[in-house]
Amino acid sequence: MTEDKLKVELLSQEINILEKSLDTLKQSISKCMLIGRKEHYSFEEMESFDSLSSKFGRTSDLYTQKVLRTIWILLHEPFVPFIDLLNKAEKMDIIHSADQLLEIRDLRNQIAHEYIPEAITDLIPDVLEISTDLEQNIQYTIQFINKRKW
User: Which of 69, 98, 132, 150 has a CB 3.0–4.6 Å from the CB of 86, allowing a cystine?
Assistant: First the structure.
């Protein structure tokens, strides 16, 4: 099997994992939207928010660090910093919006560096809102892959 065929197989596996991750993220979004905003949260509600933030981070990492990088390698593009990759990927119609993905990355980093569990609740509205952008970009990339027929 050629090196490119191995990379195509890897991309297929990554997309499969990403789609499963996105499905669990959407389930957590639904659960957390039912909880809503309030003054105090129960332990179980806080666990739901923590789960949502973890799933958001995992899904965004799978997408940006695995899927997009593998596509980049398959296209035989040179290694570039993340922001340059996003800008060029948008021009190549691989992603919907570089700006959205930079916001997603920033939010993911905020979540990863929040050490106070209560601070996560302040980020949840942003996660709920920006998850739509994440899903939109993922679907856009899947369409790109399907058109390429690697």
Answer: 98
Q: Are 27 and 79 in contact (CB under 8 A)?
A: no
Structure tokens at 84: 């340059």
The pTM for the full model equals 0.92
Closest CA to 139 of 22, 61, 12, 7: 22
pLDDT digits (tens, 9 = 90+) for 96-115: 999 999 999 999 999 988 76
Q: What do you get for the CA distance between the two ends of the chain, in Å?
A: 14
Q: What is the pLDDT of residue 4?
A: 87
Q: Give the count of beta carbons closer than 10 Å to the beta carbon of residue 63.
A: 24
Domains by residue range for the chain, with CATH: 3-148 (1.20.120)
Task: Give the whole-number percent of the chain exceeding pLDDT 90.
Answer: 85
Nearest to 63 by CA among 29, 25, 33, 36: 25
| C-alpha separations of 124 from 13, 58, 69, 100, 101 in Å | 29, 15, 27, 17, 17
Angle made by CA atoms 9, 11, 12, in degrees to the nearest 5: 65
